[in-house]
Amino acid sequence: MSAQLIDGNALSAQLRADVARRAAALKARGLTPGLAVVLVGDNPASQVYVRNKVKACQDNGLHSVLEQYPASLSEAELLARVDALNRDPAIHGILVQLPLPAHIDAQKVIEAISPDKDVDGFHVASAGALMVGQPGFWPCTPYGCMKMLESIGYKLRGKHAVVIGRSNIVGKPMALMLLQKNATVTICHSATPDLKAMTLQADVVVAAVGKRNVLTADMVKPGAVVIDVGMNRNEEGKLCGDVDFAGVKEVASYITPVPGGVGPMTITMLLVNTLEAAERAAG
Ligand code: GUN
Predict the structure, then answer these.
(1) 236 confidence band (pLDDT: 50, 70, 90)
(2) Does the annotation count 58 as an active-site position?
(3) How far, in Å, is the centroid of ligand 1 from the Cα of 169?
(4) Distance from the CA of 114 to the CA of which of 25, 120, 121, 128 falls in 20 to 30 A?
(5) Structural domains of the chain, ranges and CATH numbers in brackets
């Protein structure tokens, strides 16, 4: 058996078309949704990510501003920029690209962003809202994974979901979103003694570690749904995920590819969050 692909590009195209339609409706009311993307330093991967984010805004009718600063920018200067963006009525979403240079306290900067503009969903207020099931912005990558499960009509209630990885950006919020949909959730991480024993029980596996071949075919229950959040390079420099795609696709019922899976969904959900921030601002 070969698993069906959950196509992140196709789903993104659908969701982005809806964003563009809603952005046009807001514009007709005199309000253009605006995203500010702040990049400090010259991390090449971050430069690619922020360019893609800004381009996605432009392509879908959102206003975007890219602020680029040298790595020498002080924490106080960055906090002052965040404060100015918090007050800017043309900006509905603020994204400070991570990682930040070591001399800047990233958590302090994230906490300086107004929760109303926290379209990354990284503020403690956003994390707390997700934990207690209150409205707030959800982190884009796990939010995109939930949309992918929704797109195949997957019913999480009563299912066992295993999340591999416990980051604040993906693993932890992913687990909370799955729990909110009434899945039984297990979070595995580097100190989990027998990962395979856990994943073999899973109806859904989300791999979010950042390491190749964390999930291989022998670790997957036949018919399970596999979501691959990983973004790694193999020996030939080719983009690959955390999942041994060739092997696992023969066991799973659905699988997300890398590239073309979760990656495009992350930017799509950033557009969705920015649009929602603007819609809330419009009342
Ligand atoms: N660095 C890697 N992924 C992300 C993301 O989703 N948001 C921000 N702000 N920084 C990142």
Answers:
(1) very high
(2) no
(3) 8
(4) 25
(5) 30-115 (3.40.50.10860), 140-263 (3.40.50.720)
Question: Quick check: 1 pLDDT over 70?
Answer: no
120 lines ligand 1 (CB under 6 A): yes
Residue 283's pLDDT band (boundaries 50, 70, 90)? confident
Residues of the chain with pLDDT > 70, as a percent, come to: 100
Query: What number does the ligand 1 atom closest to the CA of 141 have?
Result: 6
Ligand 1 neighbourhood includes 106 CB (under 6 angstroms): no
Mark residue 110 as left, alpha or beta (left: phi above 0; alpha: psi -120 to 50; beta: remaining).
Answer: alpha
pLDDT in tens, 36-56: 999 999 999 999 999 999 999
- 3-class SS letters over the chain: CCCEECCHHHHHHHHHHHHHHHHHHHHHCCCCCEEEEEEECCCHHHHHHHHHHHHHHHHCCCEEEEEEECCCCCHHHHHHHHHHHHHCCCCCEEEECCCCCCCCCHHHHHHHCCHHHCCCCCCHHHHHHHHHCCCCCCCHHHHHHHHHHHHCCCCCCCCEEEEECCCCCCHHHHHHHHHHCCCEEEEECCCCCCHHHHHCCCCEEEECCCCCCCECHHHCCCCCEEEECCCEECCCCCEECCECHHHHCCCCCEECCCCCCHHHHHHHHHHHHHHHHHHHHHC
Residue 22 makes CB contacts below 8 A (sequence gap 6+) with 275, 279
CA 283/CA 278 separation, integer angstroms = 9
Average pLDDT score over the chain: 98
pLDDT in tens, 167-222: 999 999 999 999 999 999 999 999 999 999 999 999 999 999 999 999 999 999 99
